[in-house]
Amino acid sequence: MDSLTLTDGRREPVRRRSAEPAGRPVLRDRPRAVQAVALTVSPGPPPPGLSAAKVVAYLHGPEPYLLIPDPAPGMHRTLVRWLQGRSAVVGPVVARADAGASLRWARTLLALTPQRPGSTGEILFVEDHLAKVVLLQDPLLAGHLSAKWLARLQDMTPTQQTRMEQTLLAWLEGGGATGAALLLRIHPQTVRYRLRKLERLFGSSLRTSQARFEILLALKIHGMAAECARLRHRAEELPSRQASGPRQDIRPIGP
Length: 255
What we know:
This protein has helices at about 50, 75-80, 100-110, 130-135, 140-150, 160-175, 175-185, 190-200, 210-235, 240-245, and strands spanning about 1-5, 10-15, 35-40, 55-60, 65-70, 90-95, 125. By secondary structure, it is of the alpha+beta class. InterPro entries: CdaR-like_regulators, PucR_C-HTH_dom, PucR_C-HTH_sf.
């Protein structure tokens, strides 16, 4: 794997080749803080703002990324200008020893937001999607928690499931039948009718704080996973010819 120090635009070999696969990105200097950026493609030549910051880039593997040492306050604007039109996720600023965690979180969010081939990319910040990353960074465990509670609705039709999930979520977030009715814009009596059905399915679990908390997480996970699935489906719907071939406006860095 190659690395690139953006201060001079020259490609140099990584000395510790085992660091990247183990999740510990290599930094030649010893900054106090680091911010990782997960990329989908290698961007073009860096602007002066990035060069001055001594950003280190790893652009020649299947998952290119940047490491920004001690990011300055204006670094976000510089990144947005440089990566315009390309998908990327900016991780949070962390201590140097936690650079791998910042990169892992950025890659998690990048995987959860698939882009349609040929479409204009989007730059996301993990700080704006912390709940999604926390809940979905372990898909298997998240799916297990969701199935633990929501499998009780599996004998219903899809429409009934959706109504019950919406009612249960509104009840948990609204603090009762009246609050749920306001959130759903339906009559409180309709909410109470649905809640009686839910009580038969969930039993005494709805009366314990721990179970209510887990059910709320399960509903949030289910909703986020469904949205990710919709995004992925839309991305896959485009004709394959739009997804084939390199983007003409993207140039690799280096010779």
